[in-house]
Amino acid sequence: MSKTTISEEEFDKLYGTEKKAAAFFEAWRWPNGRYCPECGSTDTYKHKTRLFYYHCRDCRKQFSCRNDSMMESSRIPFRKWLKALYKINVARKGVASLQISKELGMSQASAWFMLMRIRNATVEHEPELAKKIILDDPEDDNSGGQPEGKKKTGKSKRKSKTVNLKEKTDNYKLSGIIEIDEMFPGGKERNKHFNKRLKAGRGAVGKAIVLDMRERGKGGRYRAFVIENRDKETLHRIIFDNVELGSLIYTDDWLGYRGLDGPYKHFVVKHGKHEYAVGDINTNSIESTHAVFKRSLMGVYHHVSKKHLPLYVSEEAHRLNKGAVENDLIYRIGAICTNSVGRRLPYKELVNRDG
Question: What predicted TM-score, i.e. pTM, was given to this entire model?
């Protein structure tokens, strides 16, 4: 068995039962000890009849590790959730909902909704939105929020505090050498029915636009954003929000990148003049990610609507970031579990998105 990945046979031996799968999710949900998601109390005990459920002595509510996560209100067994997470992380180009439905024994609709909730849990927190989150008190320890040596009581509460994400994301921005480019997922105009053609030109007409950027070197991070247009204002805003000032930026000769000199060290590869590399200056690395993502759209998913495209882009970013060879597979799966807390995605909200 590889140090960083696990074969499907070995994975089934480790987590193939409902009890083992539930223990996996609980360990990642409550690494510092179990607590009630409703009131924060650590004074909890196992439910006598409901498997994998717990009672809170303070608020008298029942709960499980599904609460306030991607699995909330789901009747799909833990082992199937965990197997879907395994499939998403080991498949280089993703896995289709129809394939998951056949392998796990469920309807295609249920498999699709489950995969979309998992993709939603891969979305990175964006500090520029200045969202508010609840973080554990750093003084809490493995006793579940209780100081060492003190006995838990019914009135024990899990300490928490509200912080701005900007205060906790000092290393959020990319740095070093950054390659930036756009890709245009979508079919060609000439392949559409005549009455559905936009008749507005060629090239990127009618396609979605994805701006992505990647740090060079081993473990280089990757970011991608679905954008409405690629004008200078849009591109500069995203770059300033995600790249450290003074970094080296390599792009093609698109007009929207003009003006980056000064805040950054900007170098251009003139694709319009059939120039694709000048020494180490090129965008080959970022373009290779385009190839992989487009292969997944055409060969695995076949069709992705514009309104759902950001979640598929986020899934690809997760595989490129957390899927680095030095990252253990269990860590990559656990990262999604941890990130899913507070990320419940109701079906109506998913299907009624704008787009």
Answer: 0.82
